[in-house]
Amino acid sequence: MIGMHQTDHWDVLFRGIDAKEFYDRPLGPELDLVIGLLPEGASVLDLGCGMGRAAIALAEKGYGITAVDSSRVAIERLRAESGRRGLQMDIRMGDVRELELSEGYDLIIAHGILQFLPRSAWERLLLNVQEHTLIGGMDLVAVFTDKVPLPADTALLVGDVFREGELLELYEGWDIIRNESYVKEEVSPSGSVNRYPMDRLIAKRGCTYQTGEK
Ligand SMILES: C[S@@+](CC[C@H](N)C(=O)[O-])C[C@H]1O[C@@H](n2cnc3c(N)ncnc32)[C@H](O)[C@@H]1O
Fold it and tell me: In terms of pTM, does the model score above 0.90?
């Protein structure tokens, strides 16, 4: 189970978002890059999908989407938007740590979620993700790192951040399509600058990578 303060936080955040503005916003360059590499009709798993801007955009391109999030509000809003657009998607409310993966995917996205779990949980989940990425398939993963301290309110929600560069190490043996380490800066309503240290990568599973007991 995830702590109540976590789910409350996300529910409140997602309730306050304007759907039209949210779903109309362009995808980031990393998703555009991944989309350009996906085969037609690819299967995609989005872990911690939030309100699902990526999931909606990918479903509109004809990919088979499974989207998972523990926030009831995010899932309700994603279901409403996919219904409004007449999209078929597998949308699941639940904790990603309890997810039983039984099939492989062409793309697995874990964007901005893993650091909210404790290290033991994200280590296990990431291995599970890698094992369920099809050969030739890709993972798109973004995490908070220890490069600079997180804003205090965000730190309260976090389980364990990654060491800077650790995400890349965990993808040893994969083909790295893109890897970045940066500090995202946002100006808060009070005018102070919040800094979020991020590592983000896109990795492709080649035929030589052995999962699990490397
Ligand atoms: C920073 S948001 C990222 C949303 C989206 N992936 C993006 O990049 O815009 C983190 C998301 O992870 C979800 N989340 C946090 N812990 C989770 C868990 N244990 N299981 C499922 N979802 C979780 C939150 O509800 C939230 O939607």
Answer: yes
